[in-house]
């Protein structure tokens, strides 16, 4: 009898009409193709491979096992057809395996019913944010942003700024010396000197950058901080220009209701010199922990450029005048964001920094 539908044909039937080995091989191929069409996963594929090509129970393998009992001429025909069938089945199994692998790669395992994952974005540091605001105010007034080296010589950092050796002002800015005349700059004023050496007035610049001093860290001091200084040079520059510029800056930074006041100060590179305060933005001048109840916060130091500074860079103090100012960006950031201890800005506490994520 021949094999029933869905049943792998047997070769045990010998050489009868129904047991013709050539016919059995052909029927095996046809039945294999029918079953191959329904394969949907690797397990079914492995079972199909074992059923036809497996060493122990493979139907086509059984044909090869029975060949030795066949007459010589028939054995050659059966062997040739059986080899062709094995190649065809092997190629077809490989094709199915590749198709399953490709389908697995393309399959999307995403469960769209699950909530999405939160993407945590970084943010600019509050000092950077404050510096960007400061630069924005002054560049809108026509100032140019200029930068310079953090490692300086004694001449640029002190002497050109009317701070000669043994001057008591050097004690105010306790310096980190690197050997010889080299040091870490204690302010960004050396960049003002370098700029005036290269250019002729008029000029209006701001100089942001990191500076270094031998300060003991506390609520208002750190040994390394960011500073921003400004310089304007030209004919007929007066103290009125200085006060008007800095008053506009405070209002642009903290709001139009902000008031300013100037107190006499001392800086070797300016004369006259003044400290500028602004009404506390946290309490609008009513008194709070940020301003320690005074209603005012210290903003910056300023003054008219000292004639000795102009002489050091080759300017004629009889024909040009100028004003300069300088502020600690760390302190501005602390005031801007209501921080009462600037050490918080350097502790890298993610709970604090993530408040500034946009």
The poorly predicted ranges are 1-6, 10-17
Kindly provide the name of the CATH class of the largest domain.
Answer: Alpha Beta
Radius of gyration: 44 Å
Number of helices: 12
How many domains, as an integer?
2
> Which outline best applies?
rod-shaped
What is the CATH topology descriptor of the largest domain?
A: BirA Bifunctional Protein, domain 2
What average pLDDT do the residues reach? 86
From the helix content, strand content and strand pairing, which structural class follows?
A: alpha+beta
Could you give the distance between the termini?
A: 81 Å
Largest sheet: 7 strands, mixed
* Largest sheet strand order: 1-5-6-10-9-8-7
The H/E string reads HHHHHEEHHEEHEEHEEEHEHH
Notes on the structure:
The protein is an alpha+beta fold and 358 residues long. It folds into 2 domains: 86 residues; 231 residues, Bira Bifunctional Protein, Domain 2 (BirA Bifunctional Protein, domain 2), CATH 3.30.930. Helix content is 39%, strand content 19%. The protein contains 12 helices and 10 strands. The strands form 2 sheets. A 7-stranded mixed beta sheet has the order 1-5-6-10-9-8-7, with helices on both faces. It has a 3-stranded antiparallel beta sheet with strand order 2-4-3. A hairpin with a 2-residue loop joins β3 and β4. α2 packs antiparallel against α4. The radius of gyration is 44 Å and the shape is rod-shaped. The two termini are 81 Å apart. The N terminus is likely disordered.
